[in-house]
């Protein structure tokens, strides 16, 4: 059978990897990143190769048994490995982001000299030792309901502490918000004398409470934002009314920010207008249980928001905080929906979902004197509040034209150019792959691994028995290399990871490409170059494949240095590339970088464990796509395609690469073309209906036809032809996430068509008759749209459970007997192997939102499908049908198939096939690879995909 053959192939691939490709410390910014192709290769710059910083997963499998007490202490170079316990989860709404941070930390610190154990605190504050595999779940809800069967639980904090004392040298808390940043976990660890990274419990408690922190900052002479505390009492209204008057705010329309005092920097933050609206929104925060203390602050009109990472490099009891290059947060308002939005603040969605609603600038576009004042003030704040190891400090810069009431005693924040205010102190900053911590650290020369290990090393200094441990950082070679590529890296395989493009999924593509790039760097025999397929002025919806191929030859590709990859959007990466070669901006960045490096080295010179920076300050290089492909051919690179939709998925890029004999990941030209066209996919599979593979009837309409025909007429024609009462609409040739909506009546169709006509970037939540989340729309609107019957499935309710409660974990009525699945397929053409399907659970509405598919910490997937929903026999039949689909479509490498499955028969009703599926850190494909036997961790999974591509194509001489 195909699955047996592929299973053998995967085992052999893994064995070959273990023999021929030992893991290495991450190698950053390969030398060919600095080569420009002008009919010949020439050296443009040099790069630094690091050694010994620590492979992302040198011994991942060895950590599987973390719940076993008394793990033998392994020796590395004569000294035992440092054992770090990463603790994530917690009760706050940011627990999903905490899981993302834990995943990133584990990926980058794990190595022969540092072993990681994983721990999870659930929403009821129960502690568990979990497998590393669980950390790769999309959201805690993926495994909350089965914790007791998957993890080792602890009956009390003392039991948990006893376990940590035996199995862990130091704890790295990555719990965001409550219990993580308010001093909760720190108090527990301190009580039992467990060493930990970060600020102590009392200082956390003081800094986390925004009201108390504001009072403390004011006492130390910092300018603070005028605010009023609301606590749900009868005294709130007169006090708030007096505060409105004092700050000259109109009681009916005065614009203010309402935020929980103790809930992190983005949860529950909103804008209010006037006294009544402010009280209503404050009381809503209290009623919803987010916090019992709410701050009402003046809205800082005309200001610019910033955030700055502070790293302590002091020795002994001396604090030496160094502020890295701050980041300016620019909110952008594009399209008519954005113009009408009143919540013009950096909220949770803007922070964690990559869209064009926000752009980051590192360093800020402020005068250098202002930036240096921000750094000096943040450093003083860090010391005066008694913070430790690292923190992130948010604030605002207001030009002189904006008046901010303040005490005459305020001495920190007043500058000749304007006023600097510090508003939020984050004791455990987000540590996702492209977070502010890594963006700013890379600007001064730190890789992900280097900055994290430096933080851990510094924390160890507080504990005498750990301070002498010298096995945390290995040797770091600082040798610069400048010979031509093919001579310099003889014996290594070159990999070009390309992402970006034009479609509405280009931001997800950036996340995918970044994740692939970081994971493939775990192998000694690979040199990996991140590349941006630059967006054009307009965005493609893949309406004309032939036209796309002609247009593609005029596209540009940028090879990227390390720091420029770590951005929020493709537009931001492109702007950073242009900015990096602009003389004045480059000079400013260099000046600030050198200042920070000098300050860091002043502290690091006392630390023997710090062996240097491992990221070089390099420039991006611009190529035409033809030059880029010729370079790939000359250096015998394999191209890892992470461009979703458009030319990355419709066969165009594949055709250009194959014409030059350049191997690439994923299916070939014909299969890509067919799968990109949802109608063509159905036609290609229609003959399999008697074998258990069904297709959904479709009706394709042109956008101009929809705009010119009376909506009631269109609705009647569609529902009559498709014989259904509700419809699903989606772009005919775009990705799988944008522009997809359920339409229940002609009014819904009218709203959708109006969005197309007005070129809206998104349809706001609950604009249609049935409840739904935000619907991201393709830009520009697609010319062709598909209408098909909406397939009803039963709701699946997943509930977490504390240790002593007796409630159902999983609730499913099973009336329709159909569930929605998504499943990866992997292998060689004709021998495709189905991974274990995942049942997708929709949290809002009937269509998976962009967040649920791609935003880490959001969306629920049940992998593998619970036996209470689908039997083993039906699941095996389902996988056979999925393999039949993959082989019929001549897929190869890897793809993802979305479908409905009948839980009794295993029949499959195909939705669509994605030949370049999402490869973000929390992608469902990783969950499925981890469900294989033996489990495939992310770096192994992506290496397998790369090897399948490299073996398939022979270069044309």
Describe, in plain words, how this protein is organized in 3D.
This protein is α+β, with helices and mostly antiparallel strands and 957 residues long. Helices cover 34% and strands 20% of the residues. The protein has 33 helices and 41 strands. Strands 27, 36, 37, 38, 39, 40 and 41 form a 7-stranded mixed β-sheet that branches. Strands 15, 16, 17, 18, 19 and 20 form a 6-stranded antiparallel β-sheet that branches. Strands 9-8-7-6-10 form a 5-stranded mixed β-sheet, sandwiched between helices. α6 runs antiparallel to α7. The longest helix has 22 residues, at 583-604.
Number of DSSP E strands: 41
Largest sheet: 7 strands, mixed
Low-confidence stretches: 1-78, 335-343, 345-354, 474-487, 538-550, 800-808, 844-858
Helicity level: 25-40%
Overall SS class: alpha+beta
State the separation between the terminal residues, measured CA to CA. 36 Å
Q: Quote the average pLDDT.
A: 82
Quick structural summary:
The chain has 957 residues and is of the alpha+beta class. It is globular, with a radius of gyration of 27 Å.
Topology diagram in text:
Layout: H1 2-20, E1 35-37, E2 41-43, E3 47-48, E4 75-76, E5 79-80, E6 82-89, H2 95-109, E7 114-121, E8 127-130, H3 132-135, H4 147-150, E9 152-153, H5 157-167, E10 170-173, H6 184-191, H7 201-208, H8 210-219, E11 227-230, H9 236-246, E12 255-260, E13 270-273, H10 274-287, E14 294-298, E15 304-312, E16 321-323, E17 327-331, H11 335-340, H12 348-352, E18 358-361, H13 368-384, E19 390-399, E20 418-426, H14 436-443, H15 448-460, H16 464-467, E21 480-481, H17 485-488, E22 493-500, H18 506-520, E23 526-533, H19 545-552, E24 556-559, H20 562-565, H21 570-580, H22 583-604, E25 621-624, H23 625-634, E26 637-641, H24 652-659, H25 669-676, H26 678-685, E27 693-695, E28 699-702, H27 703-708, H28 711-722, E29 727-731, E30 741-743, H29 746-757, E31 762-763, E32 775-776, E33 784-789, E34 796-798, E35 810-812, E36 818-827, E37 833-834, E38 838-841, H30 850-854, E39 860-862, H31 872-888, E40 893-902, E41 908-914, H32 924-930, H33 938-952
Parallel strand pairs: 6-7, 6-10, 22-23, 22-26, 27-41
Antiparallel strand pairs: 1-2, 3-21, 4-5, 7-8, 8-9, 11-14, 12-13, 12-14, 15-16, 15-17, 15-19, 17-18, 19-20, 23-24, 24-25, 28-33, 29-30, 29-33, 31-32, 34-35, 36-37, 36-38, 36-40, 38-39, 40-41
Helix pairs in contact: 1-33, 6-7, 19-24, 28-29
